[in-house]
Amino acid sequence: MAKILVIGAAFVDVLVHVPELPQTGEDITGILQGYRVGGSAFNVYGAIQYLKASADLFVPVGQGQYADQIRQTMRQSRIQQLLSVPDADNGWDVAYVEPNGERSFLTINGVEQLWQPEWFDRLTLSDYDTFYVSGYELENDTTAAVILDALSRKRPDATVLVDASPRAAFLSETTWQRLWALGVMVHCNETELNTLVPGAATVAQKTAHLVALTHQPVVVTLGAEGCYFTDGQTTALVPADTVTVVNTIGAGDTHCGGLLVALSQGQPLLEAVTQANRLAGYVVGMESGSLLR
Q: How far apart are CA 222 and CA 286, in angstroms?
């Protein structure tokens, strides 16, 4: 049976609604919405679980107040804790949400940036046919090397989806070259695409460049316009559903989750992107940013 491995991080998000982001030296008042467990991998896994697909969540859960909250949430949601480690506490962030639903993060990293090679000894990588990894964890060269060394031992027919993330500019050239050589499928938004392929070329030209590097499809989310994809032969812009946006936290993660499930089930890329669009449109209408129940 097809199975997905979601590699990455679980964070504690401190959600704050603000009228606008503060300028240097400015003082604004926000409204605390609460504390929740998030992080790209956690949100991706939530979308996969929502679709009732088979997956494992491989995130380090450390020791400390944030790790305790994550561990409790995982226990309540019946998520198997595959990677409990003593190295440090988990990271956390302040998520500023503006009236239009756009979000900005201030992140304090934790154990998720301290990956060790022996952590992967807990898994049998050949059990998985689809993998997810985020640029958030790959910006640390040491952590990137650990994760990419592990992924190099995957089955030859396995798919690796890399979510470029807003931190794409901070990944080293060495890491990007290893990703291209691994033959990853790139998922990004238009801003991240412009980081990966700078210059004045069109989205079509830039994605074609990435396909030439990876020999795998490229998927670019375009907000309200929908999602553009190409595999070098088939190209399409799949429209987004019209939705009321409450909070864009987790939208890209959820899109990745929907895509991963469809791909692991052998669905054509057009159907996979359509499913991903639908899920992302659903989650932006929610406050939580996650489909995990």
A: 19
